[in-house]
Amino acid sequence: MRFDRAAWWFVAPALLVIAVFFFFPILAALLISLTDFDIYALADLSNLRFVGLGNYLKLLETPQFWQALGNTLYFVVAGVPLSIGASLGAALLLHSRLARFKPFFRTALFAPVVTTLVAVAVIWRYMFNTRYGLLNYALGGIGIDPIDWLGDPHWAMPAIILFAVWKNFGYNMIIFLAGLQSIPEELYEAARIDGASIWRQLRSITLPMLSPVVWLVGILTIAGYFQLFAEPYVMTQGGPLQSTVSVLYFMYEEGFKWWNLGSASAVAFVLFLLIFAVTALQLRGRKWTAA
Amino acid sequence: MDRRIARGVQAPLVNGLLLAAAAFTLFPLLWMVSVSLMSPGEASSYPPPLVPQRATLGNYRELFGRAGIGRYLVNSVFLAVTVTAVSLVFNVAAGYAFAKLRFAGRDRIFKLLLGALVIPAQVAMVPLFLLLKQLGLVNSYGGIIVPAMAGIFGIFLVRQYALSIPDELLEAARIDGASEFRIFGSIVVPALKPIIVTLAVFTLLGTWNDFMWPLIVLTDKDLYTLPVALASLSREHVQDNELMMAGSVLTTLPVLLMFLALQRYYMQGLLAGSVKG
Amino acid sequence: MNGQGPPARWRGAVLFCAFAAALLAGSCRSPPPGDTVVKFWAMGREGEVVVQLLPEFERAHPGIHVEVQQLPWTAAHEKLLTAFAGDATPDICQLGNTWIPEFVALGAITPLDRYVADSRVVDAADYFGGIWETNVVGGALYGVPWYVDTRLLFYRRDLLAQAGYASPPASWQEWTRMMAAIKQRAGADRYAILLPLNEFEPLLALALQQDEPLLRDDGRRGNFESAGFRRALQFYVDAFRNGYAPALSGADVSNVWNEFGRGYFAFYISGPWNIAEFKQRLPSSVQGEWATAPLPGPNGPGASIAGGSSLVVFKASNKKAAAWQLIEYLAQPDVQQRFHELTGDLPPRRGPWRQAPLADDVYARAFRDQLERAKPAPRVAEWERIANEMRLVAERAVSGKISVDQAAKELDARADDILEKRRWMLARGGLR
Question: Can you tell me the distance from the alpha carbon of A73 to that of C107, in angstroms, rounded to the nearest whole number?
Answer without folding.
Answer: 40
